[in-house]
Write a structure and sequence with these properties.
Length: 120
Amino acid sequence: MFRRLHEGVAVPITVDGRSVEAREGDSVAAAMLAAGITICRTTVQGAPRAPYCMMGACFDCLVTIDGVGNRQGCMVKVASGMRVDRDTRRVRRRRRRRRSRGPRRGERVRALRPLDRAAG
Ligand code: FES
């Protein structure tokens, strides 16, 4: 459905842990569309949302980029090693399942500070 108007240098990124080869100068949303990933997020009711305007007006391209949520994918250029996470029902379910299982083997868990020490 989508095709590039120009080929640039390949830039590796990951989308939901899947390797995607973007091109230098691509926005995150354009790289995802070119890779066949059309859904960026789902609404609370479960309706899928895909990049629409590609110019920062509709906010249908919100994704998590390198751990920072609610970034407009159409307004951020790809960078090598960038990690993009969508906010779809399936991804949310997977995250919830992973959280309920507890930390994976070898995963570090940050210790919480006691509230009284944090307050004063
Ligand atoms: S596609 Fe509309 S704001 Fe990004």
